[in-house]
Structures are given as C-alpha cells and as structure tokens.
Amino acid sequence: MSEPISEPTGQPTEQPPMTLSQLRADIAAILDCDPDALSDDVPLTDQGMDSIRLVTLAENWRLAGYNVQFHVLFEQPYLRQWLAAFAEN
C-alpha cells in the first residue's frame, strides 16, 4: 500500500545564505530596474522602495526560507545593511 501524500505545511524551506547579487536581483525585480542601477550609498527608500514593496519582498523571502524581519529592513535602508541582516539570521 502506498503512503498518503502529505499536505504542504506552509513552512519555509532552508536556503543557502543570501548573496549580494541575489539581493540586488530581488530588489531590482520589485523596483522594475536593472540590478546594477541600485546604489550602495543611497538608501533604498530613495531608490523607489516603499513599505508595500518591502512587505512583499520580506514575505517572499520568508516563504523561500530566509529568516529576515520586515522591521529590521525598514529601519536599515541601505543595501549592505540588508545583506548583513540576512547574515545575522
């Protein structure tokens, strides 16, 4: 007899560490810009990031298995700070 198919748990899967290039790609996709256009020296909020986009990104990353908190990203608006937030979790 075959085993029953289990239902998805909705739990995120573990992912390898976030890289700067992946972070840039994810942010650029939601901002509809080229990843190379994102500046390390300008807050992401000044590059088009808003709270709605940030909530969407944080949820997508959570579902992909990354443990990063919205409020941490919101309080630290620079690309390198976001990468550090991923490294801490």
Automatic annotation (TrEMBL):
**Protein name, please?**
Phosphopantetheine-binding protein
Carrier domain location is 22-84
Q: Give the organism's phylogenetic lineage.
A: Bacteria, Bacillati, Actinomycetota, Actinomycetes, Mycobacteriales
Q: Which organism is it from?
A: Corynebacterium pseudodiphtheriticum
Q: Name one Pfam family in it.
A: PP-binding
**From which domain of life does this come?**
Bacteria
